[in-house]
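INTERNAL AUDIT FORM
Audit reference: QA-55
Scope: verify that the stored structure record matches its stored sequence.
Auditor: D.O.
Record contents follow.
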Amino acid sequence: MNKKSLNIAYCKNNIMKRGCKSIILFITIILSINLVVAVDWYEEESGTEAPLYAVAFANERVAWAVGGYGLGFSPTSVILKSIDGGVIWTPQDSPVSEHLQDVCFVDEDVGWAVGIGVIIYTDDGGDTWIEQSTPYDAIFDDVSCIDRNTAYVFGSVGRPFDTDSNVLKFVEGDWIELSSGVNTEWFSSYFIDENIGYVVGAGGNIVKTTNGVDFEPLDRFERNEIPVGLSAIHCLTEDECWMADGGEFVYHTDDGWESFDEIDTGETVSSFGGIHVRDSDNVWVVGQSTLRHTNDGGDSWENDDTEITNSLGLLPVAFMRDVEFMGNVGLAVGDDGTILRYGQPTECPIIENPCDDVYAVTYDQVTGCIEAYYCVILPDRNRTVQVPVPESTCQDNYRECVEENYPDHADCDETYEFCDNIDEVLADVQKEYSERAFSYASEFKYFANLLNGEKINVYLSQEKGDDNIFGVEIGKGSVKTIEPYEKPTIAIYISENTLTAIIKSDDPKSAALNALSKGDIKIKGLKGKMFKVLLFKIGLKISLPFLK
């Protein structure tokens, strides 16, 4: 019998069953303190298999996705709404049958969606949508909301395309016709405010407006003297913008397109469908089976980890069509009804309404949380009083998130990645968790005493990046993680996937034993006094090591 089969047989021995389970679960709890979950994006159920073309936020909590089947299929219009940051999606009734290409919202109530020949509007959060009349039939590809009374729609003017009057602006309750100055099909727009905006489209065309009425053509984008299709644009300011094209390139400017950098993302795709810029360093693009980002201003790019990413780092989706962020939350949509979610909304403080009678409420435009109540004091004076909301720091919110989801804190890390000192908060929570875990784990006291004074190193292998190596110090009544030992007496090897599976199992003890038997957990140096005591207790007069 080889050493591995001897170890398995030993652990399956009825007399030792409880002991083996105890020590493996003891080790597992130590490891769970340092668990890291790998994925960045989580797949959410959309309830449809139709393509989703666009997604838009009102705030971190409230978002819409639109799409449907178009040419070659029975026309279908799809509208979905989420009120919990993109986890649960509910369908809404559309007044049209045509599929929808784009959507935008100015707040939780007012928004527009557009498609082939249709513009629809809601002022009650999508409970009811109405079709609005337009000056002409067209392929409407893009809509940009400015405020409750102003929006722009871009596309192409019907067939044949024989005019440059291919812009609509919503003013005083009606859509009016404007000219872009270029006879082309427009795919994407971004407005800094009501007057300043850019529009990009087919043939490398880009135009700019500074008054919300007149559009000025800028230099066409070409590669090897061939115009490139510009599929998406997103800006931080009037000067700094990013664009995606119909291949592997994106473009960046910091001077309003007077000059620009052509950046190779390293991913050859038929076209990028969407682009979103969180800041000058962090940019996301989506396209053919791709969700990709840079965190260094475009110097390097990598595919994001998702729940559906395959071994090649790609998505099993023909085309991802849009990606958007609001605050801490990101959403990406594409074919087959695919919705991917990044992060989670900021935790809102619970605020009691201090007003007796008449009051108004203001909300944070990004988080959707209540900012303040305004009480109207009657009858002596009709004046308002702002009641300030108690401030909670992002560190407080991060701690609460980690405590609620521990040990799976990856979502929390993503949500609060821009919050300072979260490593210190996590370390504090891990320490508290360790103390709580072992304070009631009387089953492990025997083994803790045996391991007292041992120099234990844990090697937690991760799918991305270097292994996480840390030491474990076991004293009388205490267990804590420390810097790794130079010369450990015990070495424990386990992967984060194995550890996650054990912790999430309904029967962690059995899952740990199964992982041990398959070699997914390896322990070296576990012998000496602990092994001798264990063997003595069951009357065995041999001195083979329990585990190599």
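Auditor finding: record pair retrieved intact. The chain has three domains: 3-37+428-537, 62-342, 348-391.
Action required: none
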